Amino acid sequence: MRLLVLLAVSLAVLPSAGRAADKPISFINEVAPILKENCLACHDAKKRNGKYDMTTFEKLLLGGVNGEAIVPGKPDESDFHDLIVTAEDRRMPPRDKGEAVPADKAKVVSEWIKQGAKLDAGLDPKADLVRELRLRWTPPVPPVAYKYPAIVNALAFTPDGKGLVVGGHHELTVWSVPEGVLTKRVRTRAERAYALAFLPGGTLAVAGGRPGQEGDVRLYDLTAAGQTVGGVALLDGVGDPKVMVKQLLDSDDSVLCLAVSPDGKTLAAGGCDRAVRLWDIGAGPAAAKLTQTIENHADWVLGVAISADGKFLATAARDKTAKVWDLKAKESVLTYPEHQQIVYAVAFNKDASLGYSVGGDSQLRTWKLAGEGKGEKALGGHGGDVFKVVAHPTKPVVATASADKTVRLWDMDKAAAVQTLTGPTDFVYAVAFSPDGGLVAGGAYNGEVTLWKQPGDGKPLKTFNATPGLPAK
Ligand code: HEC
């Protein structure tokens, strides 16, 4: 009993776990992350609940409808602090809307107010806090050998067809084709690569991010020199400007899809912020220029495609629609609603008379661009969500990847299934054709990559796990 009392007393005396008693609290490093985690969902520049915007230090001190919520030096008189620790009905986040701020974090806020609610030296009070936090974050170095498989969200054959680029954890990995031997690892800031596309000159565009934290579109030169260790070239796509040659976008949440126009002049990317951005890349990657930002969907944009004539942009979204946008007139052309489920990916036929889309309804659907969103055909066969649809480089054929653990090939002239490619043992998230169309690659949730020859018997030519150093089962 006495021991318990002693313990309770000593705990109460301790400031907060792991910090020296009077060490000044850093607003940006210690308080801002708590705001981001617990408050900003409702107190950002758009929502401003209680007319309280906390996106900059200046606005945070300004307060909301009832004026200043922070009284420097006096946590007990600060609404801001009271509302976090209160036992009353009115608390923040509101009781019916979220978990209470953990006690150790509330204590940090309290200490910070007690110390005078100061801003770190050198930081602009008008600086966007989320952006400042992002700038301070440094990506981890990927492990030499992974303990767990890395999900394959994206795949792309290198322009010479001899390598396959796969998105890993804070890196891209390159594997020899068809052997499946690891040849290159390229460190990236992004935790995940959601989409990969080679530009005409051989530069690789990568869309990715860290879920809920940040998103990016960056251009990489995979032919840049790196250190070679054990036969594997190691490239630094975080700090080496010869490897990461250009950053096109730095945003608050993941970028999920990418497309290069068939004429190689335009790059499009879309993602969790519901926007699709277009860059003119006609003058080369270094001169890439943002030309249009389109907000046409009510939820995450999961797929993009640009028509061969460069006139139309097709998009697929979590709002259960596919849409087409006229890039010249800058207006929405049609909304295709028939999936009635998440639409994951889109593609065009050669003359852009038809759009193709796939979704959570297991269908590959085709629709006329001139048809105001009227469907043409629904092609069934997959036994689960269809995540990707990609066009063959030369033939009127598309490949689809599905949760039913298969890739399917379809003849779009006949609007009919051609072949089911089997072998994967998990959801197939990514699919790609080699530049000459002679190979198809599928990438799965469990890290497995499967290669099939085309034309072929539908059985795997090669299967390997694209996770560096993963112990064999
Ligand atoms: C789920 C949404 C939500 C979250 C999360 C949230 N708030 Fe609020 N907040 C509101 C709403 C709604 C109001 C206005 C109604 C009210 O004052 O009770 C408000 C008002 C306030 C006010 C009063 C502003 C004024 O001038 O009257 C303060 C202070 C505040 N919030 C602080 C916080 C803090 C600190 C956090 C994070 C720990 C937080 N809120 C998280 C929804 C939220």
Kindly list the characteristics that best describe this protein.
single chain, 473 residues, mainly beta, Methylamine Dehydrogenase, Chain H, 6-stranded mixed beta sheet, 4-stranded antiparallel beta sheet, 6 helices, 12% helix, disordered N terminus, binds heme C
Q: What report would you give on this structure?
A:
The protein has about 475 residues and is mainly beta. The protein folds into two domains: about 25-135, no CATH class; about 155-465, Methylamine Dehydrogenase, Chain H, CATH 2.130.10.10. The protein is about 10% helix and about 35% strand. The chain is built from six helices and 30 strands. The protein has helices spanning about 1-15, 25-40, 55-60, 80-85, 105-115, 130-135; strands at about 155, 165, 170-175, 180-185, 190-200, 205-210, 215-220, 225-230, 230-235, 245-250, 255-260, 265-270, 275-280, 290-295, 300-305, 310-315, 320-325, 330-335, 345-350, 355-360, 365-370, 375-380, 385-390, 395-400, 405-410, 415-420, 430-435, 440-445, 450-455, 460-465. The strands form seven sheets. It has a six-stranded mixed β-sheet with strand order 1-2-3-4-9-8, with no helix packed on it. Strands 5-6-7-10 form a four-stranded antiparallel β-sheet, with no helix packed on it. Helix 2 (about 25-40) crosses helix 5 and helix 2 crosses helix 6. The chain is globular, with a radius of gyration of 26 Å. The model is unreliable at about 1-20 (pLDDT under 50). Heme C (HEC) binds near residues 42, 43 and 94.
